Amino acid sequence: MRLFIAIKIPDNIKMAIGSLRVDIPGARWVPAEQIHLTLAFLGEVKEVVAGGVTEELGRIQLPEFILHFSGTGCFPDRHRPRVLWIGVQPHPHLQALAAMVRTAVLACDIPQEERPFSPHITLVRLKPAPSREFDAFLDRNKNLTFPPFRVREFTLFQSILTQQGALHIPVRNYPLAAADVVSGL
Ligand code: 2AM
Question: Domains in the chain, start-ordered, CATH in brackets?
C-alpha cells in the first residue's frame, strides 16, 4: 500500500484555498477536498511494515498547536515552477511533529529524503514553464492569509492511484495532547 502522513486541513480553509483556482496554462490543481499538509511520504510499503508504522506513530506525544497559513511560493523556484504552494508559518511543534514522524518511519526501515522538512500546502502541480497567468497569481496572492486553526491530530493516509487521480483515504488519526496550547506567535 502507498502511504503518507499528513495534517488534515479544516473544511473552511480548504474551501477558501479551493476558491483561489484560476486558469493557469499547464496547471493541475489539487482538488479542494484533497488539500493537506504532508509530514512524510512513505511510498509503497508491505502490509506488515504498515502495521509497524501504525504502532510507531502511536508512540508520538506532543501537545496541540495552532497553525497559520499565508502567502504563496513555488518549488524549485519561480522561474522553473513545478509546484505552487501556500506557505505555512513556522511553529516549533510542527517541526517537532515532523521530526518525530520521520524517526517513526525510519524505525520501520522506510527510507526518507535527507532534505529538511519544508512545510507547505501543495495547490498546483505544473509543467516548468512560467506564464503570465502564473506570475499574476503569485503576485496577487503573495500576502494571502487564512484563519489560524488548531492542529488536534495527524493522520496516516493511504493513497490509491486511479485513472481519475489519487484517492486519499485516512487509515488512522493520531490525537495530539489537549494540553496548554502554544500559538507560536
Ligand atoms: P506535497 O504535495 O505536500 O509535496 C501524497 O501523495 C503526498 O505525498 C503528496 O501531496 C506529496 O506531498 C507527497 N508525495 C507524493 N509523491 C511523493 C514523492 N514521490 N516523493 C515525496 N513526496 C511525495
Answer: 2-175 (3.90.1140.10)
Closest CA to 34 of 172, 170, 179, 171: 170
Confirm or reject: Cβ of 34 under 6 Å from ligand 1: no
CA 163 – ligand 1 centroid, Å = 18
Query: Rounded to 10 degrees, what is the CA torsion of 29, 144, 16, 146?
Result: 130
Q: pTM of the full predicted structure?
A: 0.94
What DSSP state is assigned to residue 104? Answer: H
Mean pLDDT along residues 51-57: 98
Counting ligand 1 atoms within 8 A of each CB, the residue from 33, 37, 41, 82 with the most, and so the one to mutate, is 41
